[in-house]
Amino acid sequence: MKSEPAILSKTAKFPEPGFWQRGLDFLLPPVCFSCRVPIEVQGGLCAECWSGLRFITKPFCKSCGFPFAHEMPAGMVCGSCHRHPPAFDQAKAAIGYDSKSRPVILSFKYGERTQGLKTLAGWLKNAGAELLEEADVIIPVPLHPRRLFKRRFNQSALLAHALGDASAKAVDVFSLKRRKNTRSQGGLNARQRHQNVKAAFLVPADKRPHIKGKRVVLIDDVMTTGATVENCTKALKAAGAKKVFVLTLARVVEPLKKYDDRKKSNHAKS
Ligand SMILES: [Zn+2]
Ligand SMILES: [Zn+2]
Q: What's the 78 CA to ligand 2 centre distance in angstroms?
C-alpha cells in the first residue's frame, strides 16, 4: 500500500497540487511587490521592506486610531478628536505612514501592480477585525471618473473587493460618488485639504436606499488629515448610514508638516 501514492502520481490525469503555482513561479519568479527583489512566495514583501513597517497596535485613540506612545486607559481619545470630534464613528489603520511604508503603499497605488493585493487586504482584515464584525457593507473612497480613466484603476476599490472576499462582506462601489474632480491633496495644508474635498462626495437619491440604516466600513489607502474620509462620512450619513467606520492601509502617525515638505508630485495623496 505504501507505494500507492507513487503509482497514482504517475497515472494521475490532473497535476498535483502546486503544479500551476510552480509553473507560474518559473515564468514569473516571485518578487517583493514593493522593491522587486526576488523572494520565496508570490505577493509578499522582502525582509527589508517588511522590517521597516510599523503595525499599529494598542494603545491607540478610540476614535481615529492614532497610536499613543504610552499606555492609556481604554477608550481614551486623542487631543485632536477631543477638540474636533470626527464625523466617522471610528477609524483604524494597519500601519504608520512614514518613509519606510510610503514606497510600499505607493508601489501599490501607482505601480499598476496588484501582486500585493491579498497581503494588503490581509492587513486591513486584521486591523479592522472589530469594525468588520459590526459592518453591513464595505465601500471604497471613490475616484472621479476622469481620474479613474487616467489612472485606470481605483486602488481603494481593489482593496475593498479583496477585503470583501477575505471577510465575506458585501462590497458596494456604486452608491458613494465623487462629484468634484478635486486636485491632488499633496502639498496642501490641513485647512486647504478640507476645503479641497468639501462637498466632493455624495450618495445620489436613487442609491440612498442602499445606504439607509447601514453600518459602513469605508476603505482608503492612506489617511493623512482625515479630510477625505470625513467628507465621505458626511455624504454617507446624509444618506442615512447608521454608522461609518474608516479602515485604511496606513495613516500619518507624526505631525503632518513632515509629509507636506515633499514637492507637489503625482505621488501625492489624493
Ligand atoms: Zn522589498
Ligand atoms: Zn483621535
A: 4
Ramachandran angles phi, psi of 20, nearest 5°: -65, -40
Domain around 241? 50-260
Q: How far is the CA of 156 from the centre of ligand 1 (A)?
A: 22
Cα–Cα distance, 168 to 243 (Å, whole number): 19
Asked if residue 13 belongs to a domain, the reply is: no
**pTM confidence score:** 0.82
Give the chain's domain count: 1
- Where residue 54 sits, what CATH number does that domain have? 3.40.50.2020
Q: Give residue 26 CA to ligand 2 midpoint distance, Å.
A: 47
Interval between CA 33 and ligand 1 midpoint (Å): 7
**80-111 confidence digits (pLDDT tens):** 999 999 999 999 999 999 999 999 998 887 76
- Torsion, Cα 89 165 107 31, to 10 degrees, reads 140
Ligand 1 centre to CA of 28 (Å) is: 16
